[in-house]
Amino acid sequence: MKLLTFDVGGTSVKYGICDNGQIDHHGIFPTPITIEEFYEQLVAVFESIICQHIIKGVAFSCPGAVNQKTGIIEGCSAVPYIHDFPIKDKFEELFQLPVTIENDANCAALAEVNFGNAKGCENAILLVLGTGVGGSIIINGKVYHGSHLFGGEFGFMAMNDELDTFSALGTVVNMAKRYNDRIPGVAELSGKDILALADQGAEMALEERKIFIKSVARSIFNLQHAIDPEVILIGGGVSNYPLLLPLIQEELDTIYQKLTHTTLYPTVKLCQFKNDANLIGAYVNFLQQK
């Protein structure tokens, strides 16, 4: 079944034709400023596609808390005009085809479980380490949304007595912020810069990397024992860092040396899909919903 899939982000909207997990006819346009321009762009893409392909439906990956029952995207995001009204109904009016919408992190998880590094797993967790920490919980092959659409919002977890959150401690973006705050008045470094310094043995960079890795490893330990997935996947830009998994495994080993009462060791993998993950996951969600 061929579907037109869209991945709506704060800076750009990607699209493609998805069939059995394969993306064809890739395209991208800057995220419009207004909702009227947004609709115009979507319709223009749709009309250009249906001239050449038979499309059975349209599937969206979007930021925010997507309410599958009402077709409303709750919460807030970098695309404010998509929230708090029945946008699914509007999409179906525009395209005159069945439409589904799912949260972007949930789409990425569905892509991995159905076609990627969690293929064959019924239960999985996805951690997206970006500007903050997002994520998704897959139970019995489907997204667990939670009673208030907060399923997978791991970034809110409190990590210490100061109530620093997982998002505050467990991303390289905030690692860089902490590092730069310690040396004011000089050119600010990125997370990638600081990881490179840590690889070279720079003391302060090593300290900040340790905070980041420890937070991720502890969260993985907690999530493994709270939800007991078959696999925990890590996505986001930092997943390209070659030492990420070895450092997490080393920190997990330290935890298990201290907490000897458990032998439930998590299986941790990197996501297979990068730029196409949300488009593929939107396709999977359409098949599940329709």
Automatic annotation (TrEMBL):
Keyword Transferase belongs to the record: yes
Recorded GO MF terms: kinase activity
SUPFAM superfamilies per record: Actin-like ATPase domain (SSF53067)
Keywords: Kinase, Transferase
InterPro entries recorded: ATPase_NBD (IPR043129), ROK (IPR000600)
PANTHER family recorded: ROK (REPRESSOR, ORF, KINASE) FAMILY, SUGAR KINASE
Sequence similarity: Belongs to the ROK (NagC/XylR) family.
Protein name: Glucokinase
Source organism of the structure: Granulicatella balaenopterae
